[in-house]
Structures are given as C-alpha cells and as structure tokens.
Amino acid sequence: MTEQDEENYAAIMAGRDAAIARELDQVHAENTAVLDQVQAMVSPEAFQQIKDTLADSGFTHSYQIADSPVGMPQDDDFVLGTVYVNQTTNGGFSGDDYAGTMSMPLQPGRYFQFCYAC
C-alpha cells in the first residue's frame, strides 16, 4: 500500500466514522424523546423499573409508544402489569446471544416498546 493509498483509506474511514457518529446521535435523540414521553406517563417507580430494564437489556433501540404489545406475557414483577417479550436466539460466538422486542405497559392500551440484542 502506498502512502497515498493509506491517506485515501484514512480519509474514507474518517468519513465513515463521522457518519456512524451522526447516526448514533440521531438514534439517541429519538430514544430520549420517547423516554421523555414515557416518564410523563408513569410514576417515578415505574420509570425507574423501565430504566433498569433498559440497562439490563444489552443494546436497545427503536423506542416507541405502541397501542398493543408484541410477544408473549412474562412475569417480570413490573409495577404497571404484564410485560410482553418476543425473543429469538441470536447465535453469537457462544450460541447464547438473544434478541427481540419488549413491550412494557404504561397506561391502558399504551406500551413502551423497544428492541434489544444481548
């Protein structure tokens, strides 16, 4: 690889890194806006449980407030009711990775829904 090739490669990678950073910033802003709406809909205790669930769920994304849950009911001791999970095995090096969608009740007919991968 020539010096010019290395410079071109470095410039391409820097541009790609900047694009990824912009995309992650956008996803974060969108998720934060949804979480702000969720916080306004639930008690402080319920919101803390939601934040704890997000922290324990690996990589999370695609936050939304949905009209109906996705998945099967789970007994998660969530203060506002039944949590629904649609989970699949995601393979991974050890074969124990998983991914899916979780729906947590907020109010009747409203669910905080997000995707996760661990």
Structure description:
- By secondary structure, this protein is of the alpha+beta class.
- The protein has one domain.
- The chain has two helices and five strands; from the N terminus they run ααβββββ.
- Strands 1-5-4-3-2 form a five-stranded antiparallel beta sheet, with helices on one face.
- A hairpin with an 8-residue loop joins strand 2 and strand 3.
- The protein is elongated, with a radius of gyration of 19 Å.
- The protein starts with a helix and ends with a strand.
- The model has no long low-confidence stretch (mean pLDDT about 90).
Average residue pLDDT: 89
Characterize the main sheet. 5 strands, antiparallel
Shape descriptor reads: elongated
Order of helices and strands: HHEEEEE
Fraction in helix: 40-55%
Cα radius of gyration in angstroms: 19 Å
Would you count the extended β strands for me?
Answer: 5
Specify the number of helices. 2
- Give the strand order, joined by hyphens, for the main sheet: 1-5-4-3-2
What count of domains describes the coordinates?
1
What structural class is derived from the secondary structure elements? Answer: alpha+beta
Q: What is the beta-strand fraction?
A: 25-35%
N- to C-terminal distance? 38 Å
* Poorly predicted sequence stretches spanning 5 or more consecutive residues: none
